[in-house]
Structures are given as C-alpha cells and as structure tokens.
C-alpha cells in the first residue's frame, strides 16, 4: 500500500493506493464515517460490480449504506443529475461534517464532488475511484463539474476531497476499452516532465493492461505523485503549472465535440490522439524532433489507442475542428494557450499559436 500526500494549502489530504481497500472500506476511512447512515453515490455498472462488497464492508462495521445509483455515462453529469443528487443528499439529511462517498469513475467523482461543494455551501466527500482514469487523474486535485448545453465541464467548482482511496482491485472489473482509455492519462505524466516514466510505459504497458499487479501499482503511484505535486503547486490553474495537465486535451476536446461526446471516442482515447496531434504540431513548429512525435504515436498505437485522425472518418475539415477549440476554458482574451512539447518530458504552454495554423495542420492530419 502506498500513500501519496496532496499538500494543498488549507486542504491537505492523502491518496491511498493499494488492494482490498473497498473490501475493508470503513477501516481505510479512518473514523470519517461518523454516523450509522453513509451516503454513497455510484453508477449502475459500478454498483453491479462493487455494490455488494462495499455494502457488506459498511454493514460489517455497523453502517447502513444509503445508495444513490445513477445511470452510467456522461449524461449523468448534467444539471438534472446534479439537482437530483443534491435533492437526494438533502433528503438524506447530510450535514457539512459528513463525508459523502463517490464510488465510480470520473463521471461519478466529478458530479458527486460538485454536489458536495454546493450542498449546505460545502460538505466533505471521499473519492473512491474505480477506473484507471479516475485513479490517476480525476479523483485527485479537486476539479468538479457538470456538462451544460454549451459544453463539457463548463460549470463546476474546485472542491478537494477529504481522502482518496484508489483500490487497484477495482480495475479487474473495468472493461478493457475503458482501461486502455485511462492508460492515455498515465502516459501523459511521462510526456509532461518525466521521460524516464515514458520509457517505463513503453516497457511495461502491455503487462499493465494485461493485469500485472506490480505494473499497475507502480503506474498509479507515479501518476498520482506527479498530479499531487502539480496541483499542490497550482491548485486553481493560475500559474500555468496545472495547465500542463491539459496536454492533448485541446485537440482531444475538439475531437470529442465533433464525435458528439459519444462512445465513438472515449475521453481517454481523445486524449491519446490529442497528445499525438500536440506532438506532431510541436514537430511542425520545429520545437520537437519528428522522431519524438512518432515515438509517442507508435507507443499509443501499440497498446491499441488511436494515433491517427483518418481512421475516425470525420466528415469535417480542420477549420471546423479548430472552431470547437474556441469554447476551451483556457481561452483568454482571444488567445488559446496550447500545451506543446520541446521533448518527451518537456511540455510547456505556448500562447503564440494561431488557430488558423492549427486548422491547416489538422487538414493535413485528416488525410493521414
Ligand atoms: P466513467 O466514469 O464514465 O466510467 C467509464 C465506464 O466504466 C462507465 O460505464 C462506468 O460505469 C464503468 N465503470 C467504472 N468503474 C468500473 C469498474 N470498476 N468495473 C466496471 N465498470 C466500471 O468515465 P471515466 O473515464 O472514469 O471518467 C471520465 C470523466 O472524467 C469525464 O466526464 C471527464 O470530464 C472527467 N475527468 C475529470 C477530471 C478532473 O480532474 N476532475 C480529469 C479527467 C477526466
Ligand atoms: N485533469 C486536469 C486537471 O486536473 O487539472
């Protein structure tokens, strides 16, 4: 078991990474479950896979789990999903000092975290991430949000969890495609500032995806350590350090928007392709050696993640994809900072990118 401290000023907490955490949940919550009733938000897939184990663990410690089981999928991260969840929490009599449990992937974590941020102007919550993506990224750092008609994650709050318990056993029931999509966010940390970790990913990705416990534990611990360091330095994304976590996301988000935020392209798959595009765009600008960009593409393709645009079969041009980028939250007085690469492990924010140049680059990539 590994514990990674997240040293956020005024709201420090720990991320515990290990096995058997859900099966022995009350013990790992370290006294935070102070009442018999424990509110727990999840989705139907996670409930099917883990509801009984978590319910039994709570009951064995004298608790009564109070379940809120949402439909799986991005649609639950909505105004309607938020209203229903906050009404339910209020109906359960949740108080500020209570801890709401968020059992699931990024959808459940983002929604429950936002509900916790606004119910009674702020309740405590515990992240119990069950996808690889949520364990290495979304459960840590306190970004919570819902989607609106105008786009994804456009309404939300920074609200840090009181604790994160990343149970590696949860990954055993995760569909292979979801596991692979989450792996893109693992690779991201190597590309941002850790070339040694990228090389480790090249060597160990196949084992990790096949279920190797040591490889999974190492990847989650390194990723969480990197995320903890970055968010502690720049919790509110004001200095630029945290913005580096958006590597691949500006391109990826445009692709998700164009494919309707659907199963056609999962978030992690869009991030994988987005990181390849950011790398190739960096090479086109003379920042990164083309061989570096192709090394990234080759690794992601090897594990079965998308690394080329053409196979998506998009019926649009580069200008249309670039237009989606205008809705990016990083847009600042008409300019959109891009996370680009000077090297594998050398990410930086470039505010000199012109969206017309991006559109021309994407036109070429769409045929590739
Ligand atoms: P998700 O929560 O939709 O989970 C993916 C699928 O896996 C769902 O169908 C879910 O029911 C199922 N599932 C989850 N855990 C399972 C398990 N252990 N066994 C079986 N099935 C399981 O998706 P995700 O990829 O975890 O998260 C994506 C969301 O996270 C997006 O909404 C994205 O915006 C958000 N996100 C937030 C942050 C942040 O910093 N807050 C960072 C990255 C992504
Ligand atoms: N996933 C990006 C962030 O947490 O800032």
Main β-sheet: number of strands, strand sense, barrel status?
7 strands, mixed
- Uncertain regions: pLDDT < 50 for 5+ in a row? none
Percentage beta strand? 15-25%
Number of helical stretches of at least 4 residues: 13
Number of strands: 11
The mean pLDDT is 96
Global geometry: globular
**CATH topology annotation of the largest domain:** Dehydroquinate synthase-like, alpha domain
Elements, N to C (H/E): EEHEHEHEHEHEEEHHHHHHHEEH
Ligands (ions, cofactors included): nicotinamide-adenine-dinucleotide, glycine
* Number of individual domains: 2
Give the topology.
Blueprint: E1 2-6, E2 13-18, H1 25-28, E3 37-43, H2 44-60, E4 64-70, H3 79-91, E5 99-104, H4 106-118, E6 124-129, H5 132-138, E7 143-148, E8 151-158, E9 163-167, H6 176-193, H7 195-210, H8 213-233, H9 249-258, H10 267-284, H11 290-302, H12 318-325, E10 338-341, E11 347-350, H13 355-366
Parallel strand pairs: 2-9, 3-4, 3-5, 5-6, 6-9
Antiparallel strand pairs: 1-2, 7-8, 10-11
Helix pairs in contact: 3-4, 5-6, 5-8, 6-7, 6-10, 7-8, 9-10, 9-12, 10-11, 12-13
The protein binds nicotinamide-adenine-dinucleotide (NAD) and glycine.
Describe this structure in words.
By secondary structure, the chain is an alpha/beta fold. The protein folds into two domains: 2-173, Rossmann fold, CATH 3.40.50; 178-366, Dehydroquinate synthase-like, alpha domain. It contains 13 helices and eleven strands. It has helices spanning 25-28, 44-60, 79-91, 106-118, 132-138, 176-193, 195-210, 213-233, 249-258, 267-284, 290-302, 318-325, 355-366, and strands at residues 2-6, 13-18, 37-43, 64-70, 99-104, 124-129, 143-148, 151-158, 163-167, 338-341, 347-350. The strands form three sheets. It has a seven-stranded mixed β-sheet, with helices on both faces. Helix 4 (106-118) links the parallel strand 5 and strand 6 (124-129). Helix 9 (249-258) crosses helix 12, helix 10 (267-284) runs antiparallel to helix 11 and helix 12 (318-325) packs across helix 13 (355-366). The mean pLDDT is 96. Bound molecules: nicotinamide-adenine-dinucleotide (NAD) and glycine (GLY). Glycine binds next to loops. The site of glycine has 5 residues, from loops.
């Amino acid at each position: 078991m590994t514990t990674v401290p997240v040293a956020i000023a005024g709201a420090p907490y720990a991320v515990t990474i290990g096995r058997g955490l859900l099966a022995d949940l009350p013990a790992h919550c370290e006294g935070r479950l102070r009442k018999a009733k424990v509110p727990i938000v999840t989705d139907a897939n996670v409930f099917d896979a883990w509801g009984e184990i978590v319910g039994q663990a709570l009951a064995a410690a004298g608790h009564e789990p109070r379940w809120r089981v949402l439909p799986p999928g991005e649609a639950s991260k909505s105004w309607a999903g938020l209203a229903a969840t906050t009404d339910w929490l209020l109906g359960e009599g949740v108080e500020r000092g209570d801890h709401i449990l968020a059992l699931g992937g990024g959808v459940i974590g983002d929604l429950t975290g936002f509900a916790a941020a606004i119910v009674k102007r702020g309740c405590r919550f515990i992240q119990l991430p069950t996808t690889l993506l949520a364990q290495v990224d979304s459960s840590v750092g306190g970004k919570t949000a819902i989607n609106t008609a105008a786009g994804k994650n456009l309404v939300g709050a920074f609200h840090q969890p009181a604790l994160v318990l990343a149970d590696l056993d949860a990954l055993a029931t995760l569909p292979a495609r979801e596991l692979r999509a989450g792996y893109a966010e693992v690779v991201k940390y190597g590309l941002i500032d850790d070339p040694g970790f990228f090389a480790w990913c090249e060597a160990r990705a196949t084992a990790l995806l096949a279920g190797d416990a040591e490889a999974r534990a190492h990847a989650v611990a390194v990723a969480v350590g990197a995320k903890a360091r970055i968010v502690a330095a720049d919790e509110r994304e004001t200095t630029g350090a945290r913005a580096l976590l958006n590597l691949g996301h500006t391109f990826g988000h445009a692709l998700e928007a164009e494919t309707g935020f659907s199963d056609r392209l999962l978030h992690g798959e869009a991030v994988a392709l987005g990181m390849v595009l950011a790398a190739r765009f960096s090479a086109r600008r003379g920042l990164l050696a083309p061989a570096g960009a192709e090394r990234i593409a080759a690794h992601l393709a090897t594990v079965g993640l998308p690394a080329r645009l053409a196979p998506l079969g998009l019926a649009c041009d580069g200008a249309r994809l670039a237009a989606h980028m205008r809705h990016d939250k990083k847009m600042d007085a008409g300019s959109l900072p891009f996370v680009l690469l000077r090297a594998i492990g050398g990410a930086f924010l470039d505010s000199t990118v012109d969206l017309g140049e991006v559109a021309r680059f994407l036109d070429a990539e769409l045929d590739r």
